[in-house]
Write a structure and sequence with these properties.
Blueprint: E1 2-3, E2 11-21, H1 23-26, E3 29-30, E4 33-36, E5 41-47, H2 54-69, H3 78-86, H4 92-99, E6 107-113, H5 118-126, E7 129-134, H6 139-142, H7 145-152, H8 164-174
Antiparallel strand pairs: 1-2, 2-6, 2-7, 3-4, 4-5, 5-6
Helix pairs in contact: 2-3, 2-8, 3-4, 7-8
């Protein structure tokens, strides 16, 4: 999936059901952000089951790009800022634990912001993950709604008047205000 932010670099998303991680990626995990030593590509590896909707990642990436242009990011890299922006809290470590990929996860959502050929970069990265790419539309069915509701503190009564995605987006948008 490609999302173009007009005057900003495009975001590429790829959803993969993981069989096992290859050695090239697993050798250098840094709290959910991996640097692929062989290709020197930076990307964001997210736990797929913690994402209610692709729009959630688009919002986090847009905010990361915007803050990067203003030089007001809270983390060291653009891709780690995406993970931080997904969190409902301002605790950076906690956001990496809840949304950054670990070795035991079975669903990987790759997010890459790049100026070059994003499709080729995404292919180069996904070659190092043993699994199969699935349509991004499957993300909603793979999401662990109970875990998402727990992380974002969403009550069942709230879901009677809004969707899970709307509730998550609301919390992401208001975390800097509260």
């Amino acid at each position: 999936m490609l999302v173009d932010f007009l005057d900003m670099d495009p975001l590429y998303l790829c959803l993969i059901n993981i069989e096992s991680h290859s050695h090239v990626i697993v050798q250098a995990p840094v709290l959910g952000l991996w640097i692929n030593v062989r290709f020197d590509e930076r990307f964001c590896g997210l736990i797929g089951v913690m994402i209610a909707d692709p729009f959630q990642v688009v919002l986090a990436a847009h905010k990361a790009l915007h803050l990067s242009k203003l030089q007001k990011t809270k983390t060291k890299t653009l891709h780690s800022e995406i993970i931080f922006n997904l969190s409902p809290t301002n605790n950076i470590t906690d956001s990496f634990k809840k949304f950054g990929l670990s070795e035991n996860d079975t669903t990987l959502l790759l997010a890459v912001i790049t100026t070059g050929d994003g499709v080729e970069k995404m292919r180069a990265i996904s070659q190092h993950v043993k699994g199969r790419q699935v349509p991004i539309s499957n993300l909603k069915t793979l999401a662990d709604q109970q875990a998402i509701k727990k992380v974002y503190k969403i009550q069942d009564c709230e879901l009677k008047v809004s969707s899970l995605t709307e509730s998550v987006i609301c919390r992401m948008a208001t975390k800097d205000v509260l």
